[in-house]
């Protein structure tokens, strides 16, 4: 099984994060914008493409905030979450937002919003956080 690389953007607008609706295994979920890196595509190019496709926003990519893996029975992947800000292109886009402290935030994929809040509240670090298996770790919290 080949490892897949997925990138996501943590885009804060005041105290909320940008999310979008996404079907996963036939169920609708909220997700941080992002997706799979295609063959011969850089992680930054993939992130810009995915965020624009899913939200209509153009972004400036910041620091790598989190890195983890998904290691399940049918998939093995690397998940990278970058901080990002949206660029004002003059076109009005109203992104879907979620308060990471709300009960609905518990369902956002990948399940790392609690870590993003902690990173935002902590002192800046030059080192991204390794979170291990992002889905397994979220079950033990």
Descriptive overview:
By secondary structure, the protein is α+β, with helices and mostly antiparallel strands. It has one domain (4-139): Alpha-Beta Complex (Nucleoside Triphosphate Pyrophosphohydrolase). Helices cover 20% and strands 43% of the residues. The protein has helices spanning 43-55, 113-121, 134-139; strands at residues 4-13, 16-24, 27-31, 34-36, 58-71, 76-87, 96-98, 129-133. Strands 1, 2, 3, 4, 5, 6, 7 and 8 form an 8-stranded mixed beta sheet that branches. A hairpin with a 2-residue loop joins strand 2 and strand 3 (27-31). The longest helix has 13 residues, at 43-55. The two termini are 29 Å apart. 26% of the residues are buried. The model has no long low-confidence stretch (mean pLDDT 87).
Give the arrangement of secondary structure elements:
Layout: E1 4-13, E2 16-24, E3 27-31, E4 34-36, H1 43-55, E5 58-71, E6 76-87, E7 96-98, H2 113-121, E8 129-133, H3 134-139
Parallel strand pairs: 1-6, 5-8
Antiparallel strand pairs: 1-2, 1-4, 2-3, 2-7, 5-6
């Amino acid at each position: 099984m080949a490892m897949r690389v997925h990138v996501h953007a943590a885009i804060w607008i005041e105290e909320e994060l940008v999310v979008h609706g996404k079907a996963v295994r036939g169920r609708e979920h909220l997700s941080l914008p992002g997706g799979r890196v295609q063959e011969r595509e850089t992680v930054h190019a993939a992130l810009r493409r995915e965020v624009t496709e899913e939200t209509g926003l153009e972004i400036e990519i910041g620091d790598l905030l989190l890195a983890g893996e998904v290691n399940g029975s049918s998939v093995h992947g690397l998940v990278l979450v970058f901080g990002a800000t949206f660029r004002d292109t003059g076109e009005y886009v109203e992104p879907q937002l979620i308060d990471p402290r709300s009960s609905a935030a518990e369902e956002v994929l990948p399940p790392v919003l609690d870590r993003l809040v902690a990173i935002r509240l902590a002192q800046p670090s030059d080192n991204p956080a390794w979170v291990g298996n992002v889905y397994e770790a979220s079950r033990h919290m």
